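Q: Second attempt. The first request was missing the SMILES, so the protein and pyridoxal-5'-phosphate are both included now.
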Amino acid sequence: MIAELKMDQAMSEQQNDFGDGNVGLHYEESLLWEKEAGDHPGVDLPTPKGLKSRTGVAARGEIGLPQVSEPTVVRHFVRLSTWNYSIDSGFFPLGSCTMKHNPRLNEKVARFAGFGNIHPMQPESTIQGALRVMHELQGILGELTGLPGVCLSPAAGAHGELAGLMTIRRAHELKGNAHKTVILTPDSSHGTNPATAAMCGYTLRVIPTKETGRMTVEAFKEALGDGHDVAGMMVTNPNTCGLFESEILPIVDLLHKAGGYFYCDGANFNALVGTIRPADFGVDVMHINLHKTFSTPHGGGGPGSGPICVTEELAPYMPVPTVVKTKDGFHLETEDDRPTTLGRLKGFNGQFGMHVRALTYIMSHGADGLKQVSEDAVLNANYILSQLKGDYSVPFEGPCMHECLLTEKSLKENGVTTLDVAKTLVENGIHPMTVYFPLVVQGAMLIEPTETESKETLDRFIKVMKWIAAEAKAGRGSVLHENPKSTPRRRLDEVKAAREPKLRWKKSN
Ligand SMILES: *Cc1c(COP(=O)(O)O)cnc(C)c1O
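A: Got both inputs this time. The predicted holo structure:
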């Protein structure tokens, strides 16, 4: 395999002789404005004579669209579209993202005319079937989490966090808890957690986890203080190091005694679904990424969907609408039906097409199938961990949940970094894992294979990873710094791109 790959590399270094960068049916794609000089517009009408402008001052001047023909435009965008990498192209082991296969059955059902052709402004009496789908999904998510209040409307995980934290804020508001202004979160938390807390006007207090990878009761107690100002805690479980928070029960007990609520970031639910209900470890509010755990497409394949599930106590405060069953059929609740609600956070009712896909996925798996999903996800991650722990540094001992965390520590002495590993994976036809996250370990490599990959795929990944570590240890790191070699672009100056973005193209005269 590796000999073959080397040959590919050598071939890719060949350049064509025509100076346009097109190699192997891969085009060097210029901007449409840059193409205009060599192309001819498809439509070229003469300016009509003697026709007065009917729009007066609103008459449009030159807007500077590139003058190119239709085939040029079509080819430009089709070629760009082939530059996307997706779960349908290959293995995509991004930690924390749950890039699993999206069964085509979901797509088929979402396209049924009765689901695909309805409009959210139709009278409720004409969309009873769709409302029933939402009602059933609410019921199942409530059962899987043990949290019976379910609102499907948030449009993604981060939006679910906002909805969930606003639910907590609303509850405190109506209870007269104006003094509760602090949200606790571990230092390993996903960036959206502190961002959400800040957006809701809360002050953050961080729980350190650096030494252990997990929260400890002691560290939590210190962050809690006497707890009078603590509104709640935002924690991902299993956490972003891929570890189950083993001291969660006594921690949540202390939090609840202080009058705080436990917001669980449910992005990692793929490790638990069907095996444990988050309510049983004290969760009060949680969002679910349908586009992670329940196989609705993401990463450019579809809109996200981040329903929230809350305890019975908090259900009156969550956003509207939710679907309720009345004697006259299914009904979308409004502010009038539930005046304690924090209000509406999304136009219409959420990403209905994703609700259909998630329900299809859940029903086609059944209870036993969902349990197997999480067990296989955990098994696959542990298989990778067990195979690679001799080759890479493992920051925290013991088995992992649905993703495993490695670091660059043992490669560093040979001058090889996590970035070199990622770029060498690209060179060898594998999309990298999540790199440099979580921030609590240096040079993190967070690998989430998911349950839908075959052992052959995992074995190829392991083989390439072992080879990279061996090259580093053999002192051939300088070769790894050169990767990727076969891609249209090599290593980009990502810092410069972020600091000095060029957002407008200017004609050079
Ligand atoms: C993916 C993820 C989120 C955010 O979800 P989006 O749907 O991308 O907004 C939040 N927290 C964690 C831990 C995640 O992995």
